[in-house]
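Students often ask why inverse folding is considered easier than folding. One informal answer: many sequences map to the same fold, so there is more than one right answer. In these notes we will look at a single instance of the problem. The structure comes first.
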């Protein structure tokens, strides 16, 4: 048995802001993917995945909901027969490893599922998001459902608000000098503690004001520029966003990267921002000259996401 492939995702813009109903833009990242597989003899890694799937099964079986019906007996049987999630998506890196797993389980074990081939109305997208939020909460304590939604549909998604999501047409890549890239912090990040820090900060009126005004406005401007292909304006706004994150989200940036972050802003060789909840995993970078950024960041592992 080999299931369909489900890809990683990258939230280009909107981390933390989407919790508070500002805009976000997420894209599939096909370099990493996962699929449900079954084998008689499991490797150590596959065995661990199989055990985690069993815990997830118990969670799904305990849900008291009428928004989705799972074929639990088939899921239980497949897990007992050695099913596991074979994935190259790094865990704790902010690129949607649990989202891809959730999408694969929904795809295989929900009989009246909403499919990618349907006319994806706003109601259908919101219905999927609600189901995925419920499912992925097993992994993070509280989930927006956006990671599984992105992985399941494998489409760029524009998040206008919690109740307004639509597939987004993003400009096709060019063979220019500019790029979006991932920087590997070589640390694992955990979503739940980072979200807890954010929620604590939200109790502060000044921080709330910064989120609803500066952060949301700058994020929205970045999204608009990216979708419209306004590259000069985009980099100006990404620089502002990078400054805001460095000033207000320090706990979410691993300590060794505070200086690296600042260097990009001062030299204009690259600008860094959070990829997901932060605390480790990947950091997202934007540069007008990828070769120059590679030289400046030669100590680190970089991965190309998108070319301008």
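Output (designed amino acids):
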């Amino acid at each position: 048995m080999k299931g369909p492939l489900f890809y990683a995702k990258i939230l280009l813009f909107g981390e933390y802001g989407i919790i508070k109903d500002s805009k976000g833009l997420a894209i599939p990242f096909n370099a990493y993917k996962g699929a449900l597989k079954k084998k008689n003899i499991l490797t150590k890694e596959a065995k661990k995945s199989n055990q985690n799937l069993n815990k997830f099964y118990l969670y799904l079986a305990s849900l008291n909901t009428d928004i989705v019906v799972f074929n639990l007996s088939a899921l239980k049987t497949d897990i007992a027969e050695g099913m596991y999630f074979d994935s190259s998506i790094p865990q704790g890196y902010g690129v949607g490893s649990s989202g891809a797993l959730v999408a694969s389980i929904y795809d295989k074990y929900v009989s009246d599922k909403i499919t990618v081939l349907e006319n994806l109305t706003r109601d259908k997208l919101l219905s999927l998001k609600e189901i995925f939020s419920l499912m992925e909460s097993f992994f993070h304590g509280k989930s927006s459902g956006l990671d599984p939604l992105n992985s399941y549909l494998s489409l760029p998604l524009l998040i206008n608000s919690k109740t307004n999501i639509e597939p987004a047409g993003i400009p096709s890549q060019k063979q220019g000098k500019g790029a979006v890239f991932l920087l590997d912090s070589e640390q694992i990040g955990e979503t739940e503690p980072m979200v807890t820090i954010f929620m604590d900060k939200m109790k502060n009126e000044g921080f709330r004001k910064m989120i609803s005004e500066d952060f949301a406005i700058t994020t929205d401007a970045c999204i608009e520029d990216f979708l419209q292909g306004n590259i000069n304006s985009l980099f100006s706004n990404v620089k502002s966003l990078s400054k805001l994150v460095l000033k207000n989200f320090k706990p979410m940036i691993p300590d060794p990267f505070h200086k690296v972050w600042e260097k990009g802003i001062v030299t204009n060789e690259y600008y860094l921002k959070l990829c997901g909840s932060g605390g480790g995993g990947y950091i997202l970078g934007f540069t007008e000259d990828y070769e120059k950024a590679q030289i400046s960041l030669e100590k680190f592992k970089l991965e190309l996401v998108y070319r301008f």
